[in-house]
Amino acid sequence: MKIWTTVSVLALAAATSAFGQEDVVELAPILVSANRGTETLVEEATVSVSVIGEEEIKERATVNTQVGEILGKTVPGFAVPTANLTEYGQTLRGRNFLTFIDGVPQTNTLNNDFRALSGIGLSAVEQIEVVRGTTAAYGFGGAGGLVNVITRKPKDGERFTELSFGLSFQDEEPGDSLSYRMQALTAQKAGRFDYLLSLAVKDTGSSFAATGERRPPDSFGTQGGTDDIRAYDLLVKGGVDLTESQRLEVSLSTYDYEQDSNWAGRVAGGSIAANTSATPSAGSLNTRTPGTENRSLSLKYLNEDVLGGSMDLLVYHNDRTNTFTRTEFLGFEYPQYETESQKTGARLTFNTPVSGATRVVWGLDVLRDETKVNPIDTAVATTPDMKMTGYAPFAQLTYDAGRLNLTGGLRYEVLDVDVATFFNGTSTVQGGEVKYREPLWNASASYEITPSVTVFGGYAETFQLGALSRALADSTFASVDSIDGEGQRTESYELGIRGGFGGFDYSAAVFRSDSNAGETYDADLNLVLAPERIEGIELTADYTFNETWKIGGTATLLDGDYDTDGDGVRDSDLGSDRVAPTKLTAYVAFAPNVWSDYRLDVLYSGSHDPDSSQFTGLQNIESYMVVDSTARFDVGPGTLRVGIHNLFDEDYVPVLQQSYSVQAFGYDDYYYVKAPGRTISADYTIRF
Fold this sequence. Notes:
Layout lengths: L6 H10 L14 E2 L7 E2 L6 E5 L1 H8 L5 H8 L23 E4 L2 E2 L19 E8 L12 E7 L7 E12 L8 E12 L2 E11 L25 E13 L4 E14 L3 E2 L2 E2 L10 E2 L2 E2 L6 E16 L2 E15 L3 E3 L2 E3 L2 E19 L2 E18 L10 E15 L3 E16 L2 E2 L4 E2 L2 E19 L2 E12 L3 H7 L13 E14 L2 E18 L5 E18 L4 E14 L9 E2 L9 E11 L2 E10 L18 E12 L2 E8 L9 H6 L7 H4 L7 E9 L1
Parallel strand pairs: 4-7, 13-16
Antiparallel strand pairs: 1-2, 3-6, 4-5, 6-7, 8-9, 8-38, 9-10, 10-11, 11-12, 12-17, 14-15, 17-18, 18-21, 19-20, 21-22, 22-23, 23-24, 24-27, 25-26, 27-28, 28-29, 29-30, 30-31, 31-32, 32-33, 32-34, 34-35, 35-36, 36-37, 37-38
């Protein structure tokens, strides 16, 4: 693998390509809070970060209805969208990531059900921050990084109300595919007090492939789809400035959706050889309507005058229930089930000056996570109820000397997991307690060589429980006490460069991550835990010609392999459901006047031929290219946004569905589902 050794060539190319550009365009500095109670300029960060602002979210939300879709099309290292509700198969640098909404963790620590990004609608989102790479300093887990979704809030002296209405349809089936969305939002910040109230409703129709086939409402196994759903999104926020240095904030959010489809019957008919998409039959196999209920409540106290620095305390509770679909696959019937997760926690953070340019960010994370997997149409649960109590003191020392930034720290995680006695399908497994004690180190630095060139790099560790419940269900353990309590530990290395010259901004990063017990699945869909390594390169570039024209793009190259037989040699490639094919993105933005602008976005997913025959995700992956277009117009008292997803009606199957369509086992009959064809959207917003 040559990825790690080619960074100097790529970084040099990225840096030197900007010389000679003129007409410098001054842009406002971008801040990333990274869920730690402090803010850092992106250009000074010692790790790779991506920030998607409010205006870009509004542009992309016209044609992309999910947070995961936007991330897959904008963030390097993020796997391509799955045309699904779930983020299963949509990894960050080949690994699972943590999701936060306003600092409140959404990811299920004990049994990842891959619904964390679907816990909020885009209408309530102001900014999305992505820290790419191992991030033990920010929460429990996060081998691939973290996504922090920040909800909207009013600015000083601002008072407004927004009313929005949108619809979308596919030109070949406008009736059955018709979807609509509505939102009402009001907010004010006056004096010491501020509030925001947002209510959104979304109702979606069916979707159809470019070749006309109706897509299953759940287009990948039982992971959840975006067709035939009705969703409600409520956000209530309030804040008060207690004094000049103290502030109190409270936030309540709820996101509910149900998928009551007339096309939830058996899925079949997919064929790679015949290039036919698997289609659903009429009716429903479900005993209960699939859906999600996600509720979060948080209270935050900030004090900017504690120990010469600042302090913030976040207390939160998150309650999520996911009801999955029932399915039939290769003649087998798989029962319907739901997952329940309740997370209660607190995070206390101090940002304390030490001397001169040195400060320390220190504090304590506490999390209580209770998870149940409940069978709906069977009498016996084959997955245990689990409760985790975790706490983690942390300290991060930072030295900021202007051009040089150094940071390093330790997070010590203490996790106790109680597992109830359960029946794993063949025998009873006696419950018990599993304990983990993990010191996790990190160190990184950035150095500004010139005002236009900054290099950065570092090392970080993280720990996660992994698929503990799945491992117990797949195994023949007689007792929980007999399992290996080692967990999954990941070590990550990164080296990069970023900067800008005369309207041109760029970044390049190369990384490697090693884990002792990575997760994949064999051809029979059994869990396999094995040592693995993932390497990659990420590139970004943006060029602003003037106030009218701007272009840019990203590139992601990944490679990964693992040890299948424990002999110390990594002898098989990781599948495309973990390590995605080469991803290229590009955009052109045109703003000819103040009342309109236009944008074209291109996503290219390359071909991939993993070298192994033992495991799923190892199908040969065919390349595809998807083009989206959007436009904004000031019309009357409001703003009209129109967009076309899949402008050229590309006939393709997303990477995840391709990777599971193993012809030798007949899996393509079920998993080979084409992506939606051309979809036309429009939104109109009035603000007063």
